[in-house]
Structures are given as C-alpha cells and as structure tokens.
Design goal:
By secondary structure, this protein is α/β, with parallel strands linked by helices. It is 58% helix and 9% strand. The two termini are 24 Å apart.
C-alpha cells in the first residue's frame, strides 16, 4: 500500500517543481519496478481516503496516482496515523506476511498516534517504509488561488519544514527504514531492493494453470496391440476385425484429446505472451482457441483480459459477458463480474460498474477486491450526483433573472418613481452590495470560523 500526503504543504518548492510533483513521479517509477506485486493507494491530508484498493492492474494504479492533488482531500493537515490505519484495513487480515506500506510525506504535523499505530501494524506483519520529502530548513507554500505565498492569521509567511524525527520514529516502530528523498532513481532503487527482501508468495489463477497430459500412455498401448496383432496367427476375417477395432481405438485416442491438447497449448502460449505484456499476441492465441472451441470458458475469460489491455473496452466487456454465461463455478463467475466492473469503472460508466461489483459480491461475498471497488464507485457516484445537483440549483437560480431581463426587454415600462424614491432604492442596493462583499471577504480571508492551520 502506498500512502501519499496531498496536503497543501506538499506544494512547497524546496524540491522542484513541488514536493507533491516529485513524490508522484517517484511513486510512478516505483510502481513500474514492483513487477507482479499488487498495489493500492491511500491519499491523506486532514483525513485519509482509499484512492485505489490492492490490485495487479499497474495502469490503473498509475492513473489514480496521477489524479491525486491537494484538491482531492477537503480537510487540511497531516494525519499520518489515519493514513496508516486505512492502509492496514486494505490488507487481507488472514495473512500475517507479504505486506508493506510506503509512506511519503513531509510529516510536518506531529501525529501522536502514528507511532502507536506503526507498532500495532508491525506486530501484524506489516513493514512500514517512510520517505521524507522536503528540507529541514523549510520553504514557503505558494497559494494557487492568489499566486502569493501562504500566510498565517498574523500575516506572517508560512514556512513548511520536513519533520524527519517523526518519520524516522514511524519507520523504526514499523520495522522498516526511513529514506530522505534525494533523487527519484536513488530512492526507487533503495525501496525496490528492500521490498525484494520481504517474504513473498505466489498468487495463482486457475485460468493460467497448465495441465500434464497422459494420453501418450494409451497411445503406446494401442500401437503395441497393433504390433502384437501382426504376429498372431488367426483367420483373415478375424485379423481384419481386430485391425478395424485397433484402428477405431487409435482414432478415438488421437481425435478429441489431440484437439484438447492443441487448445491447452494455445492457451499456455497466450498466457506466456500475456505475462510478457504481448497482449496483442495473447489475444490472437485465445481467439484461435475459440474458433475451434467456442465454449472454452478459460480462453473466453482470458480473451477479455487481453482485449482490455489492448484498449478494446467494448469487446472486453462482451468477452466477459460470454465467459459469465459459460462459467458454472460461482467464484470464477464473481471474478469475471469483477473484471467487467473494472473496465466499466475506468470507462466512467459508474452505474454499470456498481451493478457488476454487486453481482460479483452476490456470487462470492468474500471477494474483497469487488467490495472495495464497489465502495470507491459508490463514492464517485455520490460526487457526480452532488455536482449535478449543484448545476441544477445554479441553473434554477439563473433562470428567474434571465426571464426577468427578457420580460423587461420585451415590455419596456416607463418608471413611475420620483427622484427621492430612486435615491432611496439605490442606497438600499448599495448597502446590500456592501454586505455581500463583506461576506465574500470573510469567506476568502481570515475569519473566526477559518481553521488556524490549513496546510
């Protein structure tokens, strides 16, 4: 799990162009180096949010990482303890090994709970690595909304400093190590080598299983019978009958098994190509299998994965739908629905992906990946609905003014008020405008309701 600080203090420019930009670049390189590991992302500032659950989809991980910004979390601050809790909750509680957290932050706020949580996670087999980004001398924070350096309530320029002592302490309690960001390649190389020393396990998929064939034994028996038959002295009729029987037996052995062997070999070759990122070649192998065996559920399922990797979104969804119809095992069906949901979610088809994740959970309630992706999709749907509601409200507010202006243009009326009444109305409007400006200044500037620290 990657925990990325997106608080406004990460906009400090003591690491060019900003701390946040460099952190995202470094994490992108790290994800590329992690190979077959599963990766998840948590972003945090004043609160922590699960940006992406554990997944083997590296492209999706990099997409979520690139979208992270200081606007992603509404509450400012640096709650390292909450970020660690969110990372821990994303792991499988049944496993006591194979788990690591990479935390990258300037650690400016001193989170008193962070060390205690790190100790608890270490006791559960989670190793915590911390990366400090920034300088101990500090740097001012550029406020993107004003183009000026951020100031506190007294008008002093805010200087954000790297809190190395906190990050070193968290890494020590988490049985990991602390790294100071110096260069992207150096930090990535160090993290990669340390992560490689962790205990590892192989996550297998039945769709990639290779089978051993034993049909050669029966074929050898048939050939032996043919040879023996040549030396047995019997009537011509009997010989012909036995030859016919032996030939039929041989054809039966060489028929369906040979086709099955060909399909399995093609699937194996496709899987090998897929592992080497040759998705177009893997797709071709799976399609060849389906030409002769349209009901081959493994080839159909794997074809969906290959189509998705070659940006054939609609075709991938169709392949998953076909595999769902063919599969009988609920767990396999659940995985097919989950993959379909991922494709739909990345295509911004949120309602459809929510339904796919729900189907996956109905078939396999233990499918944690589907559960976590469903939560993320529901959150996205809520945000979309809120934005749509805001747009509708704004449209309703603007419409009466437009209608009023239109009526005034169509039916100009001669004013019937005298000079004194006009001056009174103008004075009232000016006072109303002044009050509105005061409210706006209070919202944008320092006020009693504004938090003492918002970076």
């Amino acid at each position: 799990m990657i925990a990325l600080d997106v608080s406004k203090s990460m906009l400090a420019q003591d690491v060019k162009p900003t701390r946040l930009d460099r952190a995202k670049q470094m994490l992108g390189r790290l994800i590329d180096k992690l190979g077959n590991n599963r990766v998840g992302i948590v972003i945090f500032a004043g609160k922590a949010y699960l940006q992406m659950p554990l997944t083997g989809d590296i492209a999706a991980a990099k997409m979520y990482l690139s979208s992270a910004s200081t606007q992603s979390v509404p509450t400012q601050g640096t709650v390292i303890g909450d970020a660690l809790k969110m990372c821990f909750a994303s792991f499988n509680p049944q496993e006591k090994k194979y788990k690591a957290v990479v935390l990258i932050t300037d650690g400016e706020d001193h989170d008193e709970t962070a060390n205690d949580i790190a100790k608890q996670m270490a006791a559960e087999g989670v190793v915590i690595y911390t990366v400090g980004i920034g300088s101990t001398t500090g740097s001012p924070i550029m406020d993107a909304s004003t183009g000026q350096f951020k100031t506190d309530e007294q008008g002093n320029t805010v200087v954000s400093k790297l809190n190395e002592s906190l990050l070193q302490s968290v890494a020590k309690n988490g049985k990991g190590s602390y790294l100071l960001y110096s260069s992207t390649e150096q930090v990535v190389a160090s993290l990669t080598s340390q992560l490689a020393t962790l205990h590892q396990r192989t996550v297998t998929e039945e769709s990639l299983m290779n089978y051993r064939n034993f049909f050669q034994i029966f074929l050898a028996v048939a050939l032996l019978l043919l040879i023996v038959e040549l030396f047995v002295s019997e009537t011509k009729m009997m010989k012909q009958m036995e030859k016919g029987a032996a030939v039929v037996f041989l054809v039966l052995l060489l028929g369906p098994p040979s086709f099955a062997q060909g399909d399995k070999q093609l699937i194996k070759e496709g899987n090998d190509r897929y592992k080497k990122s040759d998705y177009a070649g893997a797709r071709t192998d799976y399609e060849k299998v389906l030409e002769t065996s349209p009901e081959n559920e493994v080839a159909q399922y794997n074809l969906g994965n290959a189509l998705y990797k070659t940006d054939k979104t609609q075709e991938a969804i169709s392949a998953y739908d076909k595999s769902i119809q063919q599969l009988s095992d609920p767990a396999k069906k659940s995985n097919a629905y989950f993959n379909k949901g991922v494709v739909l979610q990345n295509s911004k088809k949120i309602p459809d992906c929510i339904e796919a994740y729900k189907q996956a959970l109905r078939l396999d309630p233990q499918n944690e990946d589907a559960r976590q992706n469903l939560q993320k999709a529901l959150q996205q749907q809520k945000q979309q609905q809120q934005q749509q509601d805001k747009d509708k409200d704004k449209k309703k507010q603007d419409q009466p003014d437009k209608d009023k202006n239109k009526q005034q243009q169509q039916k100009p009326q001669q004013s019937k008020i005298n000079k004194e009444e006009a001056e009174e109305k103008l004075k009232a409007l000016l006072e109303k405008e002044k009050n509105l400006q005061d409210k706006l200044r209070k919202v944008n500037g320092a006020s009693a309701n504004k938090p003492e620290k918002d970076w």
